[in-house]
Write a structure and sequence with these properties.
single chain; alpha/beta; Leucine-rich repeat, LRR (right-handed beta-alpha superhelix); 2 domains; eight-stranded parallel beta sheet; about 40% helix; elongated
Length: about 260
């Protein structure tokens, strides 16, 4: 903005916002470089972005959340950033406003154990509730230290994403309470069950390495029988405390259980 010669007063009045604009640009450019993007323009136009052990801090994740409203082409986002610390995803999600990341269908936070947890899951739930990630289809939260409290907070927001097709929760300390909140929420008093199911397009659910036991399998079996998961075709339950008998209860025609 070179208008100083036209109006020195205007140049003086805009000094602070110009400095802030330059700082914001430099911060966005530095963020893009961590994802091997050469410029802010390339980051803005990218359809896929990965931050994998790039040293991205929680401040960087917060900036990425702020930029969520100006990344209209982004469809896939993968984050695995231990350096972001225990509040990394929480700070990212807190900056995601209504309509942020409008084209993202694939969000992968697998193995981001140090920066999700129950607090991050709750913050992600709040972001989804505000209308962020409206087209989300594939959500990967494996090995992210999410427990029952986190999944209980996240479950209602996921059920309001009817396009969700795949949900990965493997190697999390999730137990029967969290699973029941996801697949078998109690309906409001006197209300009939939703006609389209709880998660109508969910095809794959990964629960291997969790703490799901027999009660969780029973809740899942009941959900299947009620039609709450009409599209579910693939389920992983390996490495859980659930008995072979309990796992057998969730098998039905066309459902692969491993």
């Amino acid at each position: 903005m070179a208008f100083g010669s036209a109006s020195s007063e205007l140049w003086t009045l805009t000094q602070a916002p110009r400095q802030q604009l330059q700082a914001d640009y430099e911060a966005a450019a530095a963020l893009g470089r961590k994802a091997e993007m050469r410029s802010c323009k390339q980051l803005r136009e990218a359809e896929g972005v990965c931050f994998i052990r790039s040293g991205l801090s929680s401040d960087g994740l917060a900036l990425l959340g702020t930029l969520g409203s100006v990344l209209p082409a982004l469809k896939t986002l993968r984050l695995s950033e231990p350096a972001a610390g225990p509040d990394g995803v929480q700070r990212l999600a807190e900056k995601l406003g209504a309509g942020a990341l409008p084209a993202v269908t694939w969000l992968n936070l697998n193995s981001c154990r140090l920066c999700v947890g129950d607090a991050g899951a709750s913050a992600l739930a709040a972001a989804l509730g505000r209308g962020a990630l409206p087209r989300l289809k594939f959500l990967y939260l494996g090995n992210t230290a999410i427990g029952d409290a986190g999944l209980v907070a996240l479950a209602p927001a996921l059920r309001r994403r009817p396009a969700l097709q795949s949900l990965d929760l493997h190697r999390n300390p999730i137990g029967d309470e969290g699973l029941a909140a996801l697949v078998a929420p109690p309906p409001p008093a006197g209300a009939p069950p939703p006609p389209t199911g709880v998660l109508p397009k969910l095809k794959a659910l990964y629960l291997n390495g969790t703490q799901i036991a027999d009660a969780g399998c029973a809740a899942l079996a009941a959900a299947l029988e009620s039609g709450a998961l009409p599209a579910l075709a693939y389920l992983q339950l390996g490495g859980t405390p659930a008995s072979a008998t309990a796992r057998a209860t969730v098998r039905r025609a066309g459902l692969v259980v491993r």
